[in-house]
Amino acid sequence: MVSINGIKTGIAAAARELKVSKHVVKEFSREFKEAERIAYDGAYEPSVYDAIRAHMYPQIFSDYSVGKAVVKGTSNDTFKTLEHLNKKYSQKGKEIRLAPIGTDNVRGRNIVTMPKEALEDVKQKGIQRIVDLRAEVNSTLNGRLNIKDGVQYVDGLEYVHVPVSYKDGLEDLNSIKAFPKFFDAMDKGHVYIGCNQGSHRTDFAVALNYALNTSTKDVPPILYLPPADVTNGIKRIYKKIQKMSPSEKQALGLTDEFMAKLPKDRDVLNERLIKITNATKEAKEIK
Questions:
Q1: Beta-strand pair 191-195/105-109
Q2: CATH topology for 63-286?
Q3: Where are the domains positioned within the chain?
Q4: Residue-wise over 202-223: b if at least 16 C-beta within 10 A, else e?
Q5: Any residues with CB less than 8 A from the CB of 142 and at least 6 apart, and which?
Q6: pLDDT tens digits for range 78-113
Q7: Alpha helix (H) ranges present in 91-148?
Q8: Cβ neighbours around 166 below 10 Å, total
Q9: pTM of the model
Q10: pLDDT per residue as tens digits for the range 14-47
Q11: How far apart, in whole angstroms, are the C-alpha atoms of residue 198 and residue 61?
């Protein structure tokens, strides 16, 4: 994560560019996670939030250049059938920020909170399941969730909630508890992974799946964030799980089948993390 001082500098630069009020600058100059919470809750215009993030991560966030780089030459057929949605919903003021993952998965802004037309669009084009990374989802799912044979569905699509908290990210126990269902969904494929902005939490999720789920068929993902910010967090998660007692694993639903998917040791984990770093580096070089 970038330093608080760096964030304040970025906030001030964005504020000057957008000519926003001192109140906005003051609010966003608080602790970073609090600033994210305010933005995610919709207290300010997306243009303000995006400009702030652009100044915080200027080397990779400018016009989502890394995301555009990975699209070049992609063999992801699911993404190719959905790519037109980026333009379609941008014109409606609801930018979807779609990007490919591996051969048949995609990520972007949370599709559940988009117009229902968007959900129907992705369903018709082959998406079969949704992974929702938002910390809180209840208010947007009222009356839409159904359970069949122990599987949750939202508007006809298989639904997996992996809550990423503002405090601990994917290291939170509630997140770890959802890893088995997350890995299973990714193994099945045709997944839409979404968070509020479609970039940073999805970075952690796709990297986590590639690094810790050795049964995945996905290729090393390309990240918006600096790779070290993501890979260091994954190392902590791996260490945390490996240190758990049998009773702790059982309480979280981390079965033997799930544990067998994890890298057998740190050397294997590090090899996979290096591939993520290299993939992102190569994408930035060709953008």
A1: parallel
A2: Protein-Tyrosine Phosphatase; Chain A (3.90.190)
A3: 4-56, 63-286
A4: bbbbbbbbbbbbeebebbbbbb
A5: none
A6: 777 777 777 777 766 566 777 888 778 888 888 887
A7: 116-124, 138-141
A8: 15
A9: 0.75
A10: 555 544 444 444 444 444 444 444 444 444 344 4
A11: 12
